[in-house]
Amino acid sequence: MKPNCEVTGIRLIFGYLGVILILIGISVLLPLLILFAYPEEIIYAKYFILPGVGCLFFGYLLSFLVRNCEKASLNFGQSASIVTSSWLLAILASGLPFLITGKYNFTQAMFESTSGWSTTGLSVVDVTETSHIFLLHRSLMLFFGGVGLVLIMVSVLKDASGMRLYYAEGHSDKLLPNLIQSSRLILFIYTGYIIIGTVFYMIFGMNWFDAINHAIAAVATGGFSTKAESIGYFNSVPIEVVSIILMFLGSTNFVASLYAFRGKFYNFFRYCELRFTFFLFVFFTILMSFFLWKQQGYPWIQSLRIAAFQTTSAFSTTGFQTVPSFAVWSSALALPLILLMIIGGEAGSTSGGVKQFRVWVFLKGIYWSLRDTFYSDKLVRVNYVKKPDTDEVIGNKQRAEIGSFLFLYILIMLTGTLIISSYGYPLKESLFEISSAMGGVGLSCGITAYDANPVILWVLMFGMFVGRLEIYVVAVSFIHLLTMPKTAYTKISHKIRR
Q1: Which of the residues 320, 324, 332, 423 has the least number of beta carbons within 10 Å of its own beta carbon?
Q2: What is the pTM (predicted TM-score) of this model?
Q3: For the range 477-485, what are the long-range contacts, defined as Cβ-Cβ under 8 Å and sequence gap of 24 or more?
């Protein structure tokens, strides 16, 4: 049937938000499935039914704004606004179950939800006293936050504007010519990792519930655990090895993963970020092993074991840990972790941080600049980096954009450090905590806690939010949302004059 109208402007934005609200409602209701295994927890069902059904209801009403209508093309401002608004709605809806219990105030509830959707893993929840349904709820937030709301939406809906929304949410690669096939393939790979990880966790001693939650957290590079001691609770080398592999897979670019699945290992290993990942792993594992042995007094084998795990946990931005506390670590040990949390994982993966691609191009840019000083200006050189399927040419404009992004990222991080330290925390711990939040990591020096100052929690929430959706997208969306009323007023005035 041919569409009988065209939707534009604010109506288009609210229509898309309606569709996404339906997805959010489903995600909030999904934890109820655990009642089949733990029927005694039905007393907690009411905390999820109200916000979940509410999202379905309002989402269904808003979706009528775009139903059976031709949708106008979205500009970047509209796309950014839809994505940012979607994530804010998801955080609000997923935080309501915590708030309705009465055990958490608004700040604490929104903090836990923001941490889940941003796949950070910082937590104010005492997992030793938390029901299974809430633990699963936290893990499902990691799942949906890792793949992204827009990616799930375009996997089930055919939409002409899907690509703009897809890129605005932080996805940098398109696996296949068809976006719907690409999104479904990502979900297939993502879910396959989780299923395989769950099986291996159970083989090596976890019960099925712990295995599912830790597999989701590892692949989503989120780090929420069902145990207060995280992976360290199990004190198992096989479980730590499985976790390292899952964290590595979660932080690997999906395009590179696809080539590996297809047996094209040359394309897989030629990728610049993958090589950089191996370098980070080897270099920082050796470095931290030395300091753990020299300063903390661990035997060298245990030092290597701890260093390998925490290095992977940091650069993959997962946040699992095998040590009791990082607060007692020296600056020589904390600094490598901070650097890894800032760098993060590969672009086009579930991990956070500034992304290894940007850091790689930035470092290559320094090399290119030094090289060019020794050669004639008449010699034209093409600067490029290796990707799985092609060599990407890097121009001066892209290098400038990366430099600007890194500057803004560090500026926000230092501002957050200053605010946290103003509440009496040492500079090292303050920098560690905000780096963890902005990188979507979840490792903590103990600043994040149930009784933490609300200002600190909101600072960390802001860091988690802009770190997940990226600074430019959030900035553009808020500028667009602020100017929307003025734009709408101008259009109405023109119509009246006519």
Answers
A1: 324
A2: 0.90
A3: 477/77, 477/80, 477/81, 477/83, 477/84, 477/85, 478/84, 479/77, 480/77, 480/78, 480/80, 480/81, 481/81, 481/84, 481/85, 484/10, 484/81
